Amino acid sequence: MSIMSWNARGMGNKGTVRALKDIAFKFKPEIIFLSETKKKRYLEKIKMKMKLDYSFYVDPIGIAGGLALWWSHEVSMVILNSGKNFIDTKVSVSGEDDWFLTFIYGPPYANEKQVFWESLASLRSNILEKWCVIGDSNMVTRPEKKLGGAPFDASSAKCFYEFMDAFCLLELPLKGGTFTWSNQRSEDEAILEKLDRILISLEWSTSFPKAIGILDAAIASDHVPILLLLKGMSKRFRKDFKFEAKWILEDGYTDNVQDGWQLVNESNRLWSFGKKLSRTMKKLKQWRKQKRGRSILRMKKLMQPS
Predict the structure, then answer these.
(1) Which PANTHER family does the record match to this protein (predicted)?
(2) Is the pTM of this model over 0.90?
């Protein structure tokens, strides 16, 4: 089972919908949570394209905010509570024990953050409950989770850590990168931050010991989609790419790297960087496969009796 969370920055353009369809095709999430949907129009039609059955919405205030939650008939989900910054649910899958899943869109304004984290704390009664929190926290928690812009303010993260400590929550690492948000500027004006995260209780981690969080490429938004895979990475996604230093000395290496690293979309720095890495990896994989094929042919020819 997989769960997707994405601050989509509006669902009103075709590029965003296309990006969402690509992610859904790749990971086939049973649950999709979108924040900053802005306009509610068309959301049900988009949900149907994702082949999901049920929905719950928190309307935007004017044209700002808005939350959408979609899920499959394979998931038993009950909406417990909701507000402009969260949707709290109880879920179970395939007859497993119930557990709590809270989707968040943290307020961007400093004067609202304390109230937000306190309101999340009021949702649960004790630390022994199976609880997972996923979404855009709008919170930088450590200096190394921020690159560029104003200096890290430790006092702003105090309410976050108080919330974590109160329920003995852990932050699940996200594979695939350090930052989840970019201001989409280049050079000296670039700002990168980790704002999107997955928090889990000890009880929850015991029930899902193989669970992992991963990042996908940031397309059509300044946020990266994050995915929670409850049973870990399936064989479909286990084809790890391993770079070998000796390639640098081989013919064809430089040409393939240069070809893969061609300019993609410099206006979206975070997405562009991820896309370049992906293209370069694909080029090198194809190059090595062709080179390996030629090597095998040479070996067979040499082994033939003269």
Answers:
(1) BNAC02G09200D PROTEIN, ENDONUCLEASE_EXONUCLEASE_PHOSPHATASE DOMAIN-CONTAINING PROTEIN
(2) no
